[in-house]
Amino acid sequence: MNNKIYSLVIVGYGGMGSQHGRKLEEVSRIKVTGVYDIKEVRQAEARTKGYKVYEDYQAVLDDPSVDIILIATPNDSHHPITLQALHAGKHVICEKPAMMNSQEVKDVMSASEETGKVFMVHQNRRWDEDYLAIKKLVDEKELGDVFYVETRVHGSRGIPGDWRHDLKHGGGMLLDWGVHLLDRLLILFPEKVTSVYAKLSYILGHEVDDGVKVYLTFEGGRTALMEVGTTNFITLPLWYVTGLNGAAVIEDWDMNGKVAKWDQADTSDAVPIVAGAGLTKTMAPRAENTVSEYPVPRVECDVRDFYYNFIDTIENTAERIVTNEEVLRIMTLMEAVFESDKTGEVVHLNL
Ligand code: NAD
């Protein structure tokens, strides 16, 4: 068994770079040895953690003791930093969104192939418990055949930070949160995407989107809604999933929510109920004894598995969890989202 400890340098030691530093303290096969950041204040912070602070990026590339470069810089810089790292013989963990467009992903895939060095994108939200609970319900057909999924995140504080407001740095909420939610949707519904209709929002007047709604249709007819909002004072559920035998809702990251499932067909004719200013038979509830409700399942998950899978991928001892083909597919889908928003039309795909 190989017990090599890999030396990793974090490039971009801001919010997410320092989060990686903390997480990696719990990963025995990787040691964070250094940091490169253009800001002095972040360099000073790295020194307090005992990391070697590099003067410039070339010094990281030239250091033969460095095995892995972890990129947590603003989105537009992922492409050049990754290409240089791979060509210098380093393996790369890169933050999401991998790149700014599908051509950049293709460049990096070619460079990874050419150099034999691993490039893997940190799609860490595949380890979120809310997503894994929904995946379990869908995979195990707990709700029968699932035909519709809504996935969203809502906040009310607008776009945070600095570079996330700038088009040239790859700001905006589609690239920020949308990439996570689309990534997971494409795993839940693995069939091809056949159409996309999308609307980005510019409510706060920035040059980049402060929110996005995407409607997806999949081969065979299943549909999904993906939504990111930063101007929502009341938040709607993270997940709402409907199948032929039931539905599930997850309200928040504390896993509040429920599953509702019919146990037996309700063969009785519906009794009309008073609803608002009228009567309705269509919206009358099912007979109580035909439906059961229970909490959403809890799922054990540990995002450190991402880093362990990265090492296994380097050593060729396991299937990689986040593939570059998946990353390319998401990036191509996001291009269709931008196109649909721009033209106001449905974009037809075979993706
Ligand atoms: P941040 O602004 O907090 O940190 C970015 C850091 O990069 C800053 O310290 C900045 O000085 C440094 N930097 C900028 N250009 C650089 C360069 N060329 N070389 C070296 N350092 C440079 O931003 P953040 O929120 O940490 O986001 C960084 C990346 O992480 C983004 O790609 C973002 O999408 C991603 N991110 C991912 C998650 C996740 O859950 N996977 C969460 C937050 C951010």
TrEMBL record:
Pfam families documented for this protein: GFO_IDH_MocA, GFO_IDH_MocA_C3
Domain Gfo/Idh/MocA-like oxidoreductase N-terminal: 8-122
Gene3D superfamilies with a match to the protein in the record: Dihydrodipicolinate Reductase, domain 2 (3.30.360.10), NAD(P)-binding Rossmann-like Domain (3.40.50.720)
Keywords of this entry: Oxidoreductase
Domain named GFO/IDH/MocA-like oxidoreductase: residues: 131-243
InterPro entries reported for this sequence: Gfo/Idh/MocA-like_OxRdtase_N, Gfo/Idh/MocA_oxidoreduct, GFO_IDH_MocA-like_dom, NAD(P)-bd_dom_sf
Protein name: Gfo/Idh/MocA family oxidoreductase
Record family assignment: Belongs to the Gfo/Idh/MocA family.
GO MF, one example: nucleotide binding
